[in-house]
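Appendix B. Raw example, untouched.
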Amino acid sequence: MSHSLAEVQLEFANALRYQNSGEHCDIVSDHFTDEQRIQIYRNNFVISLSEVLAATYPLTEMLVGEECFQQMARQHVLTNPSTSGDVSGYGELFEQTIQAFPAVIEAAPYLAEVALYEWKKDSLVRCVSESKVDQRPLAGLADVPPEQQGALVFHLKDSITLINSSYTIIALEHAIYQQQLDGLDINQPEFGVLIRAENSQIESHHLNEQCHQLLREFQSGQMLAAIDPSLLQHLNAVMALNVISGFSINAELET
């Protein structure tokens, strides 16, 4: 019985994930059986996507070692296969796969958050910035009259991601790459921001809780008059990060 191309593709995809056998894939056998042939495809499928995961999650692999990482990567590939021929963005939800390994989580309870942090970094590299025609440049702040300053709305650049972790992930990353782990207490909450530089490199900065909250207020589109004055005391520190793309004035309070 003949099958449509879509049916054959589905059977083949299922076979790659061990949800089907080679005999359902219309594979031509010679000195290799259809099952032996599909196993070759399976191995290549798992290896290639595992290599993508290793490139996306280098810190995670460094923390658990290659053998453990490969086991988790294989599980992720089989349960979360790529749905696109372009695998440059493959690897989302790897932190959930890690949580399915109780022994790993018991030994390194912070590992899932490390993986999520690395995914945010990878996503930021691939993020495409959009031009904002409805914003004024920061240089125009001096022209805003005092009676309108409460209506100011600051807009964050597309090239940043805020970090809020139960562990000191940014400090851990810096300590590992600088080989200065002595004295690091990872069991502390941490606030930070990831910034994509013009050369596409990702910079990570630790923030105090107030600066992080102020950036969240800006991210949600709050005007200055609606923000806690105690947070606005940190405005200069936030400005120094160069993460604000421009400003607008809330139309309801502009007049």
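End of appendix B.
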